Request: fold
Amino acid sequence: MVLVRDMPAVGRGFIERLEPPDIKNFYWTKPSPKNIRKVAVISTAAVSKRGDRPFSWLARDHRVIGKNDRDLVMTHVAVEYDRTAWQLDLNTILPLDRLNEMAKDNEIGSVAEKHYTFMGAADPRDMEKSALEVSSEMKKEAVDTVFLVPV
Amino acid sequence: MCGLAHIFESQGFSTVLVGFVKEHIEIIKPPRALWLNFPMGRPLGKPNNQEFQKKVIRTAFDLLEKISGPVLDDFSEIIPVREGRMSYALPVSLVYKVNQLGNIDKLAERVQRELSNLLPDYFKALQYLGRTTVGASELEISDFVPYISEFAKGNKPKSPRKGLPAIPLLKLVVEDLNAVYTETRIYKDKIDDFEMLGKWFWEETHAGKLLLAVEAVSLESDDQVLRQIASMSLLTPRFWSEGPLPGISGSGWT
Reply:
């Protein structure tokens, strides 16, 4: 995305007014060696499995996407981003096939069975409870690396 | 997204993110971030380009080799956009007033004919791709136009979907209708051009005109939620406009 100063007026005004979260502590977790790395994707594209409950407009919760789920729909509140790319190829927003290929080629250790989506328009401070639930689930399947992908 | 990175890192995961808003990444300082100068909606860059997508992932994952942070790198390739906008935006001048709308029933009939003409190719696209993004509303495609048209006539129909009120459902139906059109066009003409697809759908089709009619009615509605989603451009694509948005003071946004 271009720098905020180069955006048209409406989007620029909106983004400039967003209040960033105040991060009190900085954490740094030493990564696992790449050949044993287990990767889960966290997406804020508000995609979910067909038939799942739609995200509400200020959703703080998350949905679970299985490693092999491809029949997904999107219920993101915002319409300011291009939706034709994911119509063409799901991997443009949720690169599960690419990660599976990289695991097969030993570029990473493995791909998690479960991946997680949030509704990116919500304030991250309000998503903390849900993020901690996701953390608990990821620990259960020994995920050590989180790849965060916006939309 | 940057805030989530801090939460997950605090829980013992190594995080790496790709992000669009560089200024926010610089302020929030997630442990490892790769800035993408791409249009929004395309965090892996190029649809159906496996090598480009893997290049984005590999470059992001290279940040996991850094021994300390926060670290922010720029991805080396740029996907250019038009006039700084991240997606298609309706022309500022293309705003209807309710008294300009004409006969909604006749417009709805034209949309139904237009949609019927597209459907054979839509189903071919579905067969070819093996998936569709249409269906968030869970309405049948044949019910899209009747449901939307009620709003264009100033009515608020009862939601046929249990647990989802009428206005949130309207938004999903609008997006489903849009997706039927664009998925069909993408398949039929083998194109990847969101500016062209946006201009076609919103400015050249009867469906686009029907949705602009819904916007016009919503902006003058007594229903606060309907007024709000229209004025915040949650029904129609005006976010990347030079504004002001229709129906509100420009000072709220610009």
Notes: Chain B touches chain A through 98 residues (CB under 8 Å).
